[in-house]
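U., I forgot to send this yesterday:
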Amino acid sequence: MAISNRCVLVLLLACSSLSAGLLAQNTYPLGQQSPTGWSNVTFLGIRGYRFTCNAANVNVNELGCWYPDSSSVAKTVTLYDFNSQQVLAQVTTTPGSGWCWTALTTPVVLTSGQDYIVAGYSPTGHYYNNAIPASWTPTGTISYVEMRYQNSPSSANQFPTGVISNSHHGVVDIGYTVGAATSAPTITSTAPTFAPTGSAYTYTPTATGTPTPTFSISPDPATLGSGWLTWNGTTLGGTPAAGDVGTYGPFTLTATNGVSPDDTEVFSVNVALPVPEIDIDDPLAGAVTSGDTYRIYAAQAGVSSTGNFVVTNNGNVNLTFTNTPVVTASAVVNCTLNTTSPSGPLGAGNSSTMVVDVTPTAAGTFSFTLSIDSNDADEGTFVINFTGVAKATPEPEIAVLDAVSADVASGSTISETNTGTLMFNRAFTVRNEGGAALNLTGTTPVAVSGQNNCTVIITQPSSTIAAASTWAAATDSFAFDITPGTAGAFGFTVTIVNNDSDEGTFTFTYSGNTTTGSVGSLSGGGGGGGGGGCTGAGGTTPWLLLATLLAMIAAARRSEA
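Result:
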């Protein structure tokens, strides 16, 4: 059947009954006008109209249309997004008489400035009229754009592509409210997962969403264990006893408000004996062990040095500090202290800062000890020792460490056996512990001399090492590739010329042996720094080899006898 631009086709639709309260709160663009008296045309088709939303927070709560009587065939009403042609909502209603409305399970929030189509699918029962009153082309929050139709559609979901601009195919419409948009629930809280025995456990969940969400939980906590944990509809709580130690759950907490989808949180509650646990990190975020000694570098007489130590409770109940003040000082030598105690009690997983501010009184060695007493079972008194050497003015201070970070004293000897005769590597660290740059001023930063029965190749450090910070020395590395000449003893001397006022020439001796023989009996000349080599005496003597061979022959003869 052809569609005339002068005609109005009125689609008859019906819906389930709604409460008077719901009808009263909605606005209808067509005002629920009656098409009584319009000519009725019966055929399969989709009829509706395209409209523009002109306001924010428009919520479509109902879809509806007109039925001439309760014996009419049921119709399907669909709300489409005009741009994407996506079905946003759809209802199929039971025939009634006059306007009937079906509430949407999930209201549709319209976007201001965007176009939509509301259309009805009907195998029979359209109203058709030659003239369209202005009241059937609404303006305002919802404004009419054009009539939309689809003849002989394949399904109720077919998007109506036919257009007539000066007609209206009713009677199909939306019911909407303007206000805060509805939204699905989102749980915003997180359930505590630890419940120390003897302490009250409580969890009151929260969630966003419009309308306000309500909560449910499964399984029923009261059915688990002794039933110490209960849910009253808003709060999960209880106090576990020593006999309740164990894991409860997993629980599924569900938030719902009639807007899909619901939100859920899955969690378990672990009941454990109450255990506080003190842990401390140093200013460089390294873990501190009770009894550790910390070196304060770059110290200067009369100048304060400050560091922040972070105290954390990694237990499951409050960490309580048992002294006032929390931090106590003892064995204070040649310095004054100003400490800021951590705040307490510390809840499980919480941290607080201990500030340590020390000022050396005079040049020379200074030291002190800090203690924190708490209810930690195995570290009830946590002790940290501090030491340093203050200078009158900022100075460099050289230190050398071996591969395992052991201090190498100037003038000392490093002895090693069982090296074998193949080339091997030994790494060292040169460290500046002072408050001014350390300059390595030799022809090469590190030099070797007096090599005996070996060749040495040096990987050099930088010639300048920056000043240390309060809690960290500045460092660089150097290494030796050492190749013994022959089996036996070998060695060399290491020299580091620098601008340290009291160790300006730092030396040590490396004394090695390719076997387990004695070390230190070295002879022979050597080359200059950075390499060289010569062969010296050493090794196993011929008479010892001969004696060993004769003993083996005698043993063999005894075994043949």
